[in-house]
Design brief:
389 residues; mainly alpha; ABC transporter involved in vitamin B12 uptake, BtuC; two-stranded antiparallel sheet; 79% helix
């Protein structure tokens, strides 16, 4: 029977404490930082990058990297805009095509890497250039395509559930879901004679989750209500977490991240898992790109160049790593993306309120990323040392 804070939980706990410090500091510098309006804005702004970061988590878990996600995001947004605005394709169909483009690109990268043995770094670096170039070609040298501000895609970031009960219902459902899942897992481990989390710890964690969830619901209700974008993001996180930690294919992902040869000897289809992870990454990059296009209500060569040049890519990778996903594979969860992107977006929002230039924001984000990577490396070194002794 285990209790207290496990070693794998110390990183996320420290990150939550760090996020609290960031919020306290920015609130002390500007009273508007923790206002319902600003927190609601942050909750929407994290979604596009957060979805891309979740896809990055899947690839990092197998010890690889996907450098193409920024370009894939731009390609999905451009494909949607060109089909819907220029060719009159219905929004729902253009949206599906945009997502399928990301899925196909991810599968292509995965197949190239898994079957031909070309390093993923090289494959996705080439993809970054290819898909960014294709995006610019689709949009034209000087063409900016504005999407319908009242259409389906624009509604992704512009829709709010104004009724207070919706946000509170989501908070209650999330807390109850965690409590039931944790109790069920503890009962299964106890029946198998394995270490399990005591009921006291489960109830304490459920209580903390309830406080945070209902406080968030209360804050969002004081502005416009629960954003649809945030709800979709949370659903994706829950589904992704369940798929990775509660299913057999998900456990194979962690096994592959722990060692390729050991995974092969255990009968795991390494090539299939690799292709699947890059396919997931491409799909979520496309979905994230559509949320970015929704927030901008346009697609243009300027935004495509920005995505391809790396800011979305850098922020997505930084969010995954800062949130606790290891660059070496085998450790991390989709919730890492949420914690990491909250840190990055909180810094960006605070800097914007204070009127600080982007250069300072980049340096601070880079410093946080460096600390996170160093902590990961030191943690792995310490674990290896304990293993040798």
């Amino acid at each position: 029977m285990g209790s207290g804070v496990r070693s794998t939980e110390r990183g996320p706990l420290l990150l939550v404490l760090g996020l609290a410090v960031i919020w306290i500091v920015f609130q002390a510098l500007d009273d508007n930082f923790l206002s319902p309006r600003n927190l609601s804005t942050i909750s929407v702004d994290i979604v596009g990058t957060g979805l891309v970061a979740v896809g990055i988590v899947f690839v990092l878990l197998i010890g690889e990297i996907d450098l193409s996600v920024g370009s894939v995001s731009g390609l999905a947004g451009a494909a949607f805009a060109v089909l819907n605005v220029n060719h009159g394709v219905p929004e729902w169909l253009a949206l599906i095509v945009g997502v399928v483009c990301g899925t196909a690109v991810g599968a292509f990268h995965g197949a190239f890497f898994a079957w031909l043995g070309v390093p993923a770094f090289v494959v996705t670096l080439a993809g970054l250039l290819i898909w960014n170039g294709l995006t610019l070609y689709l949009l034209g040298a000087s063409g900016t395509i504005s999407i319908d501000e009242e259409g389906l895609v624009a509604d992704l970031t512009g829709t709010y559930f104004a009724a207070d009960g919706v946000a509170y219902a989501v908070a209650a459902l999330g807390t109850a879901g965690y409590l039931l899942a944790a109790r069920r897992m503890a009962n299964r481990l106890r029946a198998a004679g394995m270490p399990f989390r005591p009921a006291r710890d489960i109830w304490v964690r459920a209580g903390v989750l309830a406080v945070v969830s209902f406080a968030a619901a209360y804050t969002l209700n004081r502005f416009q209500g629960l954003p649809l974008a945030l709800l979709i993001f949370l659903v994706v996180l829950v589904v992704a977490d369940y798929a990775l930690r509660r299913t057999r294919p998900g456990r194979r992902v962690y096994a592959l991240g722990g060692g390729v040869e050991a995974a092969r000897r255990a009968g795991i289809g390494v090539e299939r898992v690799r292709i699947a992870m890059f396919t997931v990454s491409g799909t979520l990059a496309a979905v994230g790109g559509l949320f970015v296009a929704s927030g901008l209500t346009s697609a243009s060569p300027t935004t495509a160049r920005a995505a391809g040049s790396g800011m979305l890519l850098i922020n997505a990778i930084a969010a995954a790593v800062i949130g606790g996903t290891s660059l070496f594979g085998g450790r991390g969860t989709p919730w890492s993306a949420l914690l990491g992107v909250l840190v990055i977006q909180s810094i960006a929002s605070g800097m914007a309120l204070l009127g600080v230039e982007d250069a300072i924001q980049f340096m601070i984000t880079g410093g946080v990323l460096l600390v996170a990577v160093a902590a990961d490396a030191l943690s792995r070194r310490a674990s290896a040392g304990r293993g040798r002794t």
